[in-house]
Known about the structure:
Distance between the termini: 51 Å
Enzyme class: transferase
Keywords: Transferase, Ubl conjugation pathway
Radius of gyration: 25 Å
CATH superfamily of the largest domain: Hect, E3 ligase catalytic domain
Largest sheet: 4 strands, mixed
GO biological process, one term: protein polyubiquitination
Number of helices: 8
GO molecular function, one term: ubiquitin protein ligase activity
Strand content: 5-15%
Amino acid sequence: MWGDVAVELDPKETGKLVTSANKKEFVDTYVNYIFNQSVEVVFEEFRKGFFKVCDKNVVEFFQPEELRGVMVGKENFDWETLKQNTVYEGEYHAGHPNIVTFWEVFEELTEDQKKAFLLFLTGCDRVPILGMNQIRMRVQTLLNSSQQHFPEALTCHSLLQLPIYPSKETLQSRLIEAVGHNRGFKNE
C-alpha cells in the first residue's frame, strides 16, 4: 500500500501475501513502485523538457558527477582567487581602509558564511565549472549611504556596493546580517 494505491507484489498472482521467503521480492517491488512507477509520468515530462534544453548526445557524453558539475557548478572554493580577481571602482582600491577591513572580516567568516556571501553576490552558492577565476567581483561605494546601511549586491554583475563603515565591528555586523538575510539584492 502506497498512499491510497494498492500495488500487487506479483501482478500475475493477485493477492499474493508477503512471507519470509519473498520479503526481498516485496521490498524490491515496493522500492521500484516508489522510485520508478509512481513518478513515471511526471519524470517522463521532465525528461522531455530537459532534452529540449540540453542536447541528449552531449548529456550522454558525461558521467553523472561531471554532468552535475556542468549543471550546478563545483564546490572547490578558492577564496584567494576571488580576492585576487576583485576589481575596485570609484574611491575604492585594494589598499583602501574599508576594503582592507572587508577582507579581514571575510577571512574570519565560516565556510558556510563565505558560501552565503557568494550566493549574496552572484545568486549562486557554487563555483562555475571553469573555476573561481570566472567570478569577477566588483566593489564600489554605496552612494548616499551611512553606517546604518547594509551592503547591497547586484547579482547579475557580481557587484558589491559597500558603504564606508567607521569600524571593523560595524562592517562585520552589517555584512553578516545582509548576507544572512539576503538583504543585499537591490529592489528596483
